Amino acid sequence: MKRTQFNISVSEDTFRIDTKNTSYMLGVRDGLFLGHFYYGPRIIEDDITYRSAFAPEGRISRTDREMVIFMDGFRFEYPGWGAGDSREGALKVQYEDGTTRVCPLFRGYEISSSKAPVPGLPSTYAAEGDVGTLRIDLADPDTDVEVSLFYSAFYEEDVIARRVEVRNGGDGKMVLQRVLSAAMDMPGRDMQGRPFELLTFHGTWAREFTRQIDPIPFGRIGVSSICGKTGNRAQSFLGIVSPGITQEEGEVYGLQFLYSGNFSSMVEKCPNEDIRVSVGIHPEEFSWVLMPGETFYAPEVVMTYSDHGLGRMSRSFHDLYRRHLIRGKYKEQKRPILINNWEATYFDFNTEKLLRIARQAKDCGIEMLVVDDGWFGKRNDDNTSLGDWTVNEEKLPGGLSVLSSKLKEIGLKLGVWFEPEMVSPDSDLYRAHPDWAIMIPGIEPSRSRNQLVLDVSREDVRDYLFSAVSDIIREADVAYVKWDMNRQLSDLYSAALPAERQGELLHRFVLGVYDLQERLLTAFPDLLLENCSSGGARFDPGMLYYSPQIWTSDDTDAYERIRIQEGAATLYPLSSLGAHVSICPNHVTGRNVPFMTRGHVALAGTFGYELDITKLSEEDLTEIKRQTVLFHRYNDLIRNGDYYRIASVRDNGAYDCYGVVSKDKSEMLLTFIHVINRPCTPNRFIHLKGLDGEKRYRVTWAEDPEEQPEVVAEAYGSTLMNAGLTIPCMNGDFRSVLYYIEEI
Ligand code: DGJ
To answer: Which residues line the pocket of ligand 1, CB cutoff 6 A?
Structure first.
């Protein structure tokens, strides 16, 4: 008998989870084994158990004689360890006798109309009744390991959120050696029979989010982090894509991990061409002691499928994050236009200098001054004082509260930089509590930027940090905190953990960071938090649960930012991408890009400035005034609209183009960047996307909001999308233009 509730159907031993355009099917084989049957375009057929294995029934039927063949070929939904499946396992448990086999078998299920938060971890949310959750319970009858798999269907967004809980149902101690959050065995070819490829994003400092697509070789391939945070070397994202994937065409399975620490996102191609996808906390440097009755909560994975190319995947993730992950006052509000003093002054500032910047900024329409690194302790360079969160009164007499009230008189809010997770060996905090730093007793720890990492897995350390940071926020009425994190973790040892629990440190560290940020947001619900890690080294969906925006990169060169922001926007909404206009020659690349283009590129993000505004020409100041007006005019559209990537300089080497279309398709903001000029360059015909073909639109230059907009064209959406919009050729490199397209 078939039963459907909250987009989840159960029929015989098969479960189907539907979203608007997709179906996900799993089921039970022989009453025992939970298999993955299908994930793809929406279907209505229930009986597809034949998809649970790669080979015809006869060849892999389960017999006592050939159990290993079955275990090694069955498409498992959540594979265990050591029972004959030699592919990447999702769960490995060590028992008191030293053995590690675990074979979770089906036990039952439940469907509910809500989605519970995950204790201590970020997770997607929805109001009661808005999202259905399927819970499947598994257990290993031989070892008392109990596993619950949770699937929640975000219907409109075409996203399924998955997570796992592992319980010790026995009476002996267990040590979890790996608990991945999701696994999926699927065919290795797309619907046209072409072998799937792997889309990932790699990077380094100032070069985050570099897109890469590779064939999937036989064996294991993937991305990972073992540095204690997400890191900039790779996004934890995995995309399984059709060869030649474009914005509109081809299949893509996208998986993202809502976690900010070590991860392993792996793909394994098997001899039978099946691929196993697995995502979770990296098993290296992870173990967790689970006492009888205790539960371990693994972080959430969100996944989407699109048979309409990458564009649909991006928009699904954007909607999911904007509606069901980002929280707080700024979830739906414009963020203040800020000016950050980092590239303006570095460590060399005082109240007077900041106020001069503030006055000029106010005159140009900027709304908040952010005091970056260097306002505390004896911090005149980056060798000292992290952990001593008391104001340097030589620079800021009377403290941040004096600066704050003077800013208020000018009409600006105050934002402040912290790096709470760190301590300088040259600090009062370190001298008082050397055991609060993560390091191995008797071994000189590796420093990075001359700093050590605080053991925020400890409650006493978190208590200190919470009161230090919140005292400053309260005293100086701080509206915004930039939470930085400038090194990876090494020399792992926590003075607060017994030897058998040292393997828990990295996960406990991440839980500690989440706990601290949650406490701050609870104490200061109006606070705008921006996470940062040497640029984008902790840009992940986990952090978005706490901060609606994340600093995307220390590379503020607009040309570099086109590429970085294109990569980031493949996964994250524009409203979350920290983007500022900075000075030229750019401090990272030495490149010169016109001021107007720098503004246009930063508008596709949170928008702000990072330069000494007191040293700009009148011409540049006038441009800032225009840009801040543009921000107010178009930010609602940019924050809330659907993102369409139209052309990429990464592909064509010459120009870049993207647009944001309102949900009701009544307006669009189009950004075109003429990146490299060449003689005899033709006019470009840009085929707009996302408009309503039947609607008629007026296209204007969005350049000067003060003047009557110049009408460029009037046409139906179908004309603009199919025949295209002519962009006249421009002279010079890095030139850009914004078009506003409005229904008439
Ligand atoms: C790294 C950040 O990414 C920068 O924006 C800046 O805040 C510096 N840290 C300050 O030390």
So the answer is: 342, 372-373, 417, 484, 486, 532, 534-535, 551, 554
